[in-house]
Amino acid sequence: MPARASSGGSARKKPGGRSSPTKKRMPEGPIVFAFSMFGQFLAVLWKVIAHTVGGVARAVGRGARDLDPDLRRDGAGLMLLASGVLIAAAVWWQSEGPLLEYTRLVIMGGFGAFSPILPLLFLPIAVKLMRTPGTAKPGDGGRLAIGFVAIMLGLLGLIHIAHGVPRPAEGAEALQTSGGLIGFIASGPLSMVITPTLTAVLLVLVLVFGILVVTSTPIRRIPERLQTLFGALLERDGGPDSGIGILGADEEGPEQRKRKPRSGPTASTVAGDHERPYDTPVLPQSPEPVAPALTDGHEKAEGENAKDESKDKPAKGRRKKTGAPDPTPAPATAEQLSIPSRVVEGDYELPAPPMLEPGSPSKERTKANDDIVSALSGVMGQFKIDADVTGFTRGPTVTRYEIELGPAVKVEKVTALSKNISLAVKSADVRIQSPIPGKSAIGVEIPNTDKDIVSLGDILRSSAATADDHPMLVGLGKDVEGANVVANLAKMPHVLVAGATGAGKSTCINGLITSLMMRSTPDEVRMILVDPKRVELTMYEGIPHLITPIITSPKKAAEALQWVVGEMDRRYDDLAASGYRHMDDFNAAVRAGELKAPPGSEREYEPYPYLLVIVDELADLMMVAPRDVEDAVVRITQLARAAGIHLVLATQRPSVDVVTGLIKANVPSRLAFATSSLSDSRVILDQAGAEKLVGKGDALFLPMGAGKPIRLQNAWVGEKEIRRVVEHCKKQSEPSYREDVAAPQGPKKEIDEEIGDDLDLLLQATELVVTTQFGSTSMLQRKLRVGFAKAGRLMDLMESRDVVGPSEGSKARDVLVQPDDLPQVLTDIRGG
Ligand SMILES: Nc1ncnc2c1ncn2[C@@H]1O[C@H](COP(=O)(O)OP(=O)(O)OP(=O)(O)O)[C@@H](O)[C@H]1O
């Protein structure tokens, strides 16, 4: 407004001034007038041409923007390649032709002595663009451009100074043989105002800056980057195989794949080394360069010192120093979960990594993502919410879009819009996360219409998995940011896997077992597989990692769990006797020859393998013997961590009668696949979320101690791959089964005959009577919902086992067992 007023004002005040120049010039003559008209015509023509060209360019630009990003990158790569060929033809081969001559003039004039090297730069950049579509991050283009400009200015300026800073006035040849026009611009003017030497110093700095920008390296991380670079070079020169990538694995000879004694920190040669502050079962994505700089360096130094110490000093001396109590004597006859002599450490060859197939290459951005960004922005605009979609990270199954709020905008305004967002993005499975951990932004997770396949092979070959050689490490999948998620089962230490049918549980169990087969020998990890569904795990029959044939009968499974409790007790006895707190320490001492059986004992210590019990359908077991299974699970989960015994319990019925409060309280890690209801999600995770998963391996992983679950796409492993790995393992060694695992123990048979089918009821009745100290038949009738005759029979059975006294008419019987003795009495009744 003020601008218009003033211009109007000035026009009124100076009517004959600059506002009407043509009127003044007209009388100067017809030639001037003709020129002026021609000038105006040219101006109009220019406007028309410019408008048309601009319109075409904008249309092409819009078209190009609508192209698939991969195609756009391919196009850019091809254009670079064509430019490289053109420059090579002009500069190297001095080819004839007006375009080539012009190119030669421009390139040699601009880049001088550097021109012949220029075409060589185009080829690798073009190939990189085409080979890795979609891996660039937004902003990469600008960064690379700035970096390359800085490198060129620095380099050409230095070349120019080396040639004595020739000026353009000295002729084209002088420029062509030095740093060219660019070299002159970078060094000439500066050399005049400061000395050429000082200019050279500044140009070196510019060159270094360019290199840092191109390699995206902050100055403080230069030493770290150099270390990584030299590390990689050394490894390539015959250093230890990194195991990353299929190529690396292919190059590896069979000799190299033989299991060597583990040497990493997890091999734990130092007592207590496996316990760390803020420990979590989930391994970091890239443990090598970044995080270790602060913590690992410190830990490593300590670890190394400690390791050296362990070499020189006997374990006993070390323990005494810490003031640990004197060890209790070792049980002389205790039996160990022995390892067959066929499996000798060093002879067992692990399956080659290429046995597992690669997945599909991950995409960083597709057109579908761009469409959703504009749909989300549209919703924010329609509801007049001051919020922007600031970016997104594409995972294999879902993409997380980040929404940042303006000042004083309530988070609830966005979260309340979940249904509108669902509608706008045409997807029912929208999950809103507020905030995204580590960011002040709201995350909206929306399933991808074009999903990637995450393969177990890729996860196990990733640096996250190869950086740690712990035998219990398993590949889980990829998170929403596309990072590999691997976890240590020994640290979980027990996990509940649940989800509706078809959500991907069995695939997950297959992935866990296959991970272990790929990474560990039978003398490191043994498994008990319980498969009441009878079909899911049959392909693993006969692998040497099993200690008993696959258990399909729920009743036998309950017995096997009892055996595991016994095995745990045996291990604890040995731990107590040797004075160690964890099986890893015990094993390390046995391997180092520091532990000898007590004099007079027939025992010979052997390292204990980790024992993993996988139950694929807990519900079937809970239907047959709820009490026994619950008791065993609770005992194992409460104590088995230090004994190296771990449970994986899977169920498709996450209801409270299957996943009881006691089981839930003792199984700290949870892996939830898509559930059919919110209440199922609450049973597994204690929070909502699993009902919004899209199925087929989409999961929420809540590791022990974590507050918020990690969303991940579980890794896929096909049956063909599993069979290949199983075949390989079977060829390496035969299983050596323990006869007693799923067999009824002790003189049970005789007692069974007397008790008949009432064992479970009798156990419940005994527990009731002993805990309440009230031997009443009518109470049994009420609490156990049995008839008078059955309750009377149970009383008689209890009397015959000295749990209650004889009948005294209508009075309650005396209870002869104290609550403290209950576990022993129950074991006796079971015949254990
Ligand atoms: N990680 C995955 N990646 C890709 N697809 C998967 C994945 N996991 C499962 N699927 C798909 O989902 C289907 C069902 O998976 P799976 O058999 O593991 O489900 P489930 O939960 O074990 O079902 P059920 O309880 O009936 O055995 C598979 O056949 C496969 O097509």
From TrEMBL:
Biased composition (Basic and acidic residues): 296-315
InterPro entries: AAA+_ATPase, FtsK/SpoIIIE/SftA, FtsK_alpha, FtsK_dom, Ftsk_gamma, P-loop_NTPase, WH-like_DNA-bd_sf, WH_DNA-bd_sf
Segments for region (Disordered): 1-25, 241-341
Superkingdom of origin: Bacteria
Keywords: ATP-binding, Cell cycle, Cell division, DNA-binding, Membrane, Nucleotide-binding, Transmembrane, Transmembrane helix
Skewed-composition ranges (Basic residues): 11-24
UniProt GO BP: cell division
GO molecular function: ATP binding; DNA binding
Pfam families reported for this sequence: FtsK_alpha (PF17854), FtsK_gamma (PF09397), FtsK_SpoIIIE (PF01580)
TM regions (residue ranges): 31-54, 75-93, 105-123, 144-162, 182-215
PANTHER family: DNA TRANSLOCASE FTSK, SPORULATION PROTEIN RELATED
Similarity remark: Belongs to the FtsK/SpoIIIE/SftA family.
Function: Essential cell division protein that coordinates cell division and chromosome segregation. The N-terminus is involved in assembly of the cell-division machinery. The C-terminus functions as a DNA motor that moves dsDNA in an ATP-dependent manner towards the dif recombination site, which is located within the replication terminus region. Required for activation of the Xer recombinase, allowing activation of chromosome unlinking by recombination.
Entry protein name: Cell division protein FtsK
Organism of origin: Nocardiopsis kunsanensis
